[in-house]
Write a structure and sequence with these properties.
By secondary structure, this protein is of the alpha+beta class. It has eleven helices and seven strands. Strands 3-2-1-4-7-6-5 form a seven-stranded mixed beta sheet, with helices on both faces. The chain starts with a helix and ends in a 10-residue tail after the last helix. Bound molecules: zinc ion. The site of zinc ion has 5 residues, from loops.
Length: 259
């Protein structure tokens, strides 16, 4: 029986594998829910590619969310909370831990993977960022990434970005009836929101593929998107929902030796 720690290590090493080109150096971070109010999140400065048991810290979700709710929160109060975790565990959580807490607490996810893939960022660092988030170019995009993704304009990582993502997430859920599978951050990267480690990898891989297809299409001319009618029909087709259900049975990536 693999543990949450085994699973998040496995996902981290998979996302960080050099051949995938999703992150370099200490870019990116991952988290997994470990209880109603707890998550394991990557420690600041740790590398996904070589992540081990000491590269994750367990933190309370409510404690991080409370920072967003308190209008008096400033950089010092965030540093105080992160330092306290650092003293208790030996490692400070990633600066993006608040975003992970939001994805787990309000985004319906159990596992979250944040990466900076080159093909995705090529679009997010261009005038085509909105295209990536809102245009559907082929059916599998809907099956894995859902009908609509979220795009957040560039804001420095930290309190303001976390608050903005939470506001937009609530708007998205109110409009669509469900949270998105992927949140794109302009000029930055992507967050995959999954029920399992396997789903987070699937979402990340599909976002990379969609980005490659869009780039190739844009390079030879204009994209020819699916119509709204086609997209809605595909989203609701019984056989596509069956494909999703089959994929969801592949619960987690095989856990690797965490020693
Ligand atoms: Zn990032």
């Amino acid at each position: 029986m693999s543990t949450d720690l085994d699973r998040i290590i496995s996902l981290s090493r998979t996302l960080g594998a050099p051949g995938r080109d999703l992150v370099i150096l200490a870019e990116g971070n991952t988290s997994v829910r470990t209880g109603a109010d707890r998550m394991l999140v990557k420690a600041s400065g740790a590398h996904l590619a070589t992540a081990g048991p000491d590269d994750f810290v367990e933190v309370g979700l409510a404690e991080l969310i409370a920072l967003l709710d308190n209008p008096d929160t400033d950089q010092q109060s965030i540093a105080d909370v992160f330092n306290r975790v650092g003293v208790a565990t030996g490692r400070r959580p990633s600066v993006e831990a608040m975003l992970h807490a939001i994805c787990l607490q309000e985004g319906g996810a159990s596992v979250v993977g944040h990466t900076h893939p080159v093909p995705v960022n090529a679009l997010l660092c261009s005038e085509h960022a909105e295209t990536l988030a809102s245009v559907i170019v082929y059916p599998e995009q809907i099956v894995i990434l859902g009908r609509r993704a979220m795009l957040i304009p560039y804001v420095d990582p930290g309190l303001l970005l976390a608050r903005l993502v939470r506001d937009r997430l609530r708007q998205h859920i109110a409009a669509e009836g469900a949270p998105p599978k992927v949140i794109y951050l302009a000029n930055h990267g992507m967050f995959a929101l999954g029920a399992t480690t396997a789903e987070v990898l699937r979402i990340t891989e599909m976002a990379v593929k969609v980005s490659r297809i869009m780039q190739a299409g844009l390079a030879i001319g204009a994209l020819s998107p699916l119509t709204d009618n086609d997209s809605d029909r595909i989203d609701e087709r019984e056989d596509e929902q069956y494909r999703r259900a089959v994929l969801d049975r592949a619960e987690h990536l095989p856990a690797r030796d965490a020693s």
